[in-house]
């Protein structure tokens, strides 16, 4: 076994790999860029080597610098994680030529599977069913139109070198095929430096289901069942689960057998994933093979009990596979949510900055529930614009699917992140979504269920009651604390008034009454909300804590609580509200108060996130049509194209290419 390995990656996956290496007694070496000097993976490793500037091309993607770090530290092997150099056959070859072991497949397998056209051909030869289509290169728009007509619409145009959901377009007719070809080609050229495009049938109501495989150097290959990753936004996975609620045992076995056949066909060594698209009749078709550890691998680990990183390391060290196919058992259900630094209510725009507060729920194995949080960040650190905006992967396991989903809901409620925007409200809303809970999925789920983007759903009657009860409990404690400030005269006898009014949002006034008992320290309340029944509210929450934990009529709840001027902002299970609690007389007056209107920004183009202006496409006095490009802003390695929302005339332009702008900076104004 290796004595020391280097992890050529950062963030959660670097930490994840080290966790296993440390358990196996292997020393770990981290590498880090200038932006990551304080990062968690650096702290966690036994040794750490600086490898260059923040830009990945000069650090995490530099074969030379990583090789130098191996030499300097005497690491025997390199684990590449995912992304960066993980699927780079040249890196793998250079490493092995220099006498280091690459923890992953051989360069030949990486090359064969790294190209979508080549891999599809190899898969077809190995007897794997592939998406019907044209396995050659598309020359031009005319050719695209001809091939598409032959396949039959809808079709998908894809970059052969593609990855990460980029460089693909669906076309429903000839015009779209022609336009899609041009756009896919240019996106592929700029993202992958390779503009080869091919076309295949677009599978309708598709589900993304993939098979985890393991192979060793002795020709043994097995599969570890499937993961379903149909909850995607723009072809990128957001929520994954294992097993799939859609597969029956026969389909699982058939898919597993094809995945193993493909792994054998390319002498696959290590952990890999064969991705399939599955139609509504459970026909499945090969999409691609990812020759690395997958982001969503933890769900497989939780249902099989197998540590994939350990198996990868053992295989790379020359050991034989320790598990026979017959020993692989899928137990229970696991769900993973990807937490991103992005603002779900502002069209998922990246949100960077300092993590003022970062307190994940406790990792645990309690009774029938497992909570695991794979993370690479810590409170006080910064989410920078240089890398992937993923904050953490929260994973839960339970004996059945709904219990795993409920455990996820609960864990999301208990996750505290302040300082940046994040997608927890969106993930929490999906956990409650009936269609997700029933498992009626397709990769179109998000586009279909949130066609206008995401807005937190309004609370139901029950949820309103919970929010009001928590708001009152919080307010009573706040008042109690104020009363106890030294030097302050107690303004009342110590008894608490019975009648209250909770204002949710701007003008939703809910009467809340304390049902019985005069209480001095309100940790235990009986309250009635509106016309509703009496609720028992119990909590040991103290002012300042970001989560109100307690029970409401026996139901355990964890509600996020943040102070705002005169009230609190509450969020729970994907619903959110600002609550102000006041005596009824004050509420009467409160209703008469004018509401301050937000300034009118409808005639301005605001910078949606902190970023760098790449280009300004219009000039003063120019008339633009809805949908036209106004400016391009770069943040988090992504170019964000800002378009006109309606027809308008540009009155002034306040920014120029190269300007570094804060969020909400006014880029231009319209007449
Ligand atoms: P998975 O199937 O493991 O979920 P993803 O498609 O989400 O894979 O990609 C995993 C990571 O690798 C992401 O950070 C993504 O940005 C990156 N990635 C995947 N493919 C490529 C590629 N061809 N080029 C650059 N980055 C990639
Ligand atoms: P990437 O390398 O970017 O991960 P994939 O080929 O794995 O590319 O496709 C990513 C996603 O795009 C799939 O999970 C699926 O949602 C969608 N997709 C790809 N090909 C098709 C197809 N032929 N029909 C329908 N959806 C597809
Ligand atoms: Mg894929």
Describe the structure.
It is a single chain. By secondary structure, the chain is α+β, with helices and mostly antiparallel strands. It is built from 17 helices and 40 strands. The strands form nine sheets. It has a nine-stranded antiparallel beta sheet with strand order 14-13-10-11-12-15-23-21-20. Bound molecules: adenosine-5'-diphosphate (ADP) (2 copies) and magnesium ion. Magnesium ion (MG) is lined by residues 275, 288.
How many β strands by DSSP?
40
CATH top level of the largest domain is Alpha Beta
Bound molecules: adenosine-5'-diphosphate, magnesium ion
Secondary-structure-based class equals alpha+beta
CATH hierarchy: architecture of the largest domain: 2-Layer Sandwich
Helix fraction, binned, reads: 25-40%
**Beta-sheet strand percentage?**
25-35%
């Amino acid at each position: 076994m290796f004595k020391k390995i280097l992890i050529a990656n950062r963030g959660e996956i670097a930490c994840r790999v080290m966790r296993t290496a440390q358990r196996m007694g292997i020393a770990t070496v981290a590498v880090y860029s200038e932006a990551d000097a304080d990062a968690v993976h650096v702290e966690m490793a036994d040794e750490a080597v600086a490898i260059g500037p923040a830009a990945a091309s000069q650090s995490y993607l530099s074969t030379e610098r990583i090789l130098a770090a191996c030499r300097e530290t005497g690491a025997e092997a390199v684990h590449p994680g995912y992304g960066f150099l993980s699927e780079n056959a040249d890196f793998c070859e250079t490493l092995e030529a220099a006498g280091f072991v690459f923890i992953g497949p051989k360069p030949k397998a990486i090359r064969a599977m790294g190209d979508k056209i080549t891999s599809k051909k190899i898969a077809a030869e190995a007897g794997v069913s592939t998406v019907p289509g044209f396995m050659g290169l598309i020359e031009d728009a005319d050719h695209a139109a001809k091939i598409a007509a032959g396949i039959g619409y809808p079709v998908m145009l894809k970059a052969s070198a593609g990855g990460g959901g980029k460089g693909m377009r669906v076309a429903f007719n000839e015009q779209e095929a022609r336009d899609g070809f041009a756009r896919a080609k240019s996106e592929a050229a700029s993202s992958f430096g390779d503009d080869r495009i091919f076309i295949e049938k677009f599978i309708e109501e598709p589900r993304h289901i993939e098979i985890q495989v393991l192979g060793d150097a002795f020709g043994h290959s097995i599969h570890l069942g499937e993961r379903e990753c149909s909850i995607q936004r723009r072809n990128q996975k957001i929520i994954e689960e294992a097993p799939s609620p859609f597969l029956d045992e026969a389909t699982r076995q058939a898919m597993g057998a094809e995945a193993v056949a493909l792994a054998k066909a390319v002498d696959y060594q290590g952990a890999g994933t064969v991705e399939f698209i599955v139609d509504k009749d459970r026909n499945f078709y090969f999409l691609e093979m990812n020759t690395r550890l997958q982001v969503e691998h933890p769900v497989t680990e939780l249902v099989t009990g197998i540590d994939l990183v350990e198996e990868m390391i053992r295989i790379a060290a020359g050991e034989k596979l320790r598990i026979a196919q017959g020993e692989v058992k899928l137990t229970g259900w696991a769900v993973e949510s990807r937490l991103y630094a992005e603002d779900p209510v502002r069209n998922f725009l990246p949100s960077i900055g300092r993590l003022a507060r970062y307190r994940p729920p406790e990792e645990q194995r309690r009774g029938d529930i497992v909570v695991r949080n794979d993370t690479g960040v810590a409170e006080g650190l910064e989410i920078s614009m240089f890398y992937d905006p993923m904050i953490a992967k929260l994973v839960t396991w339970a004996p059945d699917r709904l219990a795993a989903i409920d455990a996820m809901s609960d864990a999301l409620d208990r996750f505290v992140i302040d300082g940046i925007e994040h997608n927890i409200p969106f993930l929490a809303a999906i956990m409650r979504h009936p269609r997700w809970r029933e498992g009626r999925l397709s990769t179109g789920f998000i586009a279909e269920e949130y066609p206008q983007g995401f807005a937190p759903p309004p609370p139901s009657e029950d949820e309103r009651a919970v929010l009001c009860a928590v708001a009152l409990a919080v307010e009573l404690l706040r008042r109690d604390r104020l009363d106890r400030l030294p030097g302050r005269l107690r303004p009342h006898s110590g008894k608490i008034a019975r009648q209250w009014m909770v204002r949710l949002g701007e003008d939703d006034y809910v009467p809340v009454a304390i049902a019985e008992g005069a209480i001095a320290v309100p940790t235990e309340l009986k309250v009635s909300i509106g016309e509703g029944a009496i609720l028992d509210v119990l909590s040991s929450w103290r002012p300042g804590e970001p989560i109100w934990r307690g029970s409401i009529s026996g139901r355990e709840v964890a509600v996020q609580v943040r102070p705002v001027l005169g009230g609190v902002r509450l969020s729970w299970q994907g619903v959110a509200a600002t609550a102000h609690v006041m005596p009824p007389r004050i509420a009467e007056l409160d209703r008469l108060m004018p509401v301050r209107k937000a300034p009118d920004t409808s005639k301005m183009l605001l910078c949606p996130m902190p970023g760098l202006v790449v280009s300004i496409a219009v000039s003063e006095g120019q008339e633009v049509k809805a949908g036209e490009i106004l400016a391009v802003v770069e943040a988090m390695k992504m170019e964000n194209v800002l378009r006109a929302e309606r027809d308008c005339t540009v009155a002034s332009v306040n920014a120029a290419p190269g300007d570094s702008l804060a969020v909400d900076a006014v880029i231009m104004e319209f007449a």
